[in-house]
Amino acid sequence: MRFAFFLPNFGPFGDTEALIELARDAELKGWEGFFIWDHIQLDGADAMGPMVDPWVALTAVADATSSLRVGTMITPVARRRPWKLARETVTLDRISGGRLTIGVGLGFPPEDEFGTFGEETDDRVRAQKLDEGLEILDRLWSGETVDFDGEHYNISGAQFQPTPVQRPRIPIWCGGWWPNKRPFRRAARWDGVAPELVGGGTPTPADVTEIAAYVKENGAGEGFDIAVNGYSDPDTGPEAGALADYEAAGLTWWMERIDTERLFSFDQARERVHAGPPKRR
Description:
Elements: E1 2-7, H1 16-28, E2 33-36, H2 45-48, H3 54-64, E3 69-76, H4 82-95, E4 100-105, H5 110-113, H6 123-141, E5 146-149, E6 154-158, E7 172-178, H7 182-188, E8 192-197, H8 205-217, E9 225-230, E10 232-233, E11 237-238, H9 243-249, E12 253-257, H10 266-275
Helix pairs in contact: 1-3, 1-10, 3-4, 4-6, 7-8, 8-9
């Protein structure tokens, strides 16, 4: 099992220099990943404070580190043009030397992230755009000529160079609220899943066992990642269960969560980074 930090792109973390400092410290203290949220607009923006673009910020983080896996968790593909996202992700993958993972999903809350800008908020439409967008990403990353005729996107004769460092592609992890099944069938077609319980809770080891079995039944292959985010104590392990239980259930990444409910200050987050990853009991 590997250990990552998982934090917002707004408030005290809506500053690229602050993110760089935390990422450098995380690398020195033994953390293996650094993932930030991908929001563009939230209700109560004054309360949330400043916000950074995750792709620009992660590029700076990647340039300032050498071993951390970096990524978004999650990027709402439906509010980004897939071809532009393809260029951005390949550029970051190459700058990082092949350390990028992209977490994807529908995005939440849709009224803020989409409706504010007159974009589609319907879950069904956004799911269709997500699926089409992922296919476009994968094909453009290949370096081959792409023709695509979808319900929402159309491409004629596009060919992108260079290709990513990582092969066969940049890893794609799909977010989903368990036990809703459709996002997990989507995830099984790609490289990993980042589950939460309906309403945002942390899955237990028993939940992870069920998730691992379900994605395998639906086609997930060897090397498929399951990444759970939650709160832990550096000495006693995750509140929702021992790390050994998670690992036995099939968890491959524990993502230490920083959010508005816990450690929502730069100093608090830095203290947690310096304490190091949680220990197995």
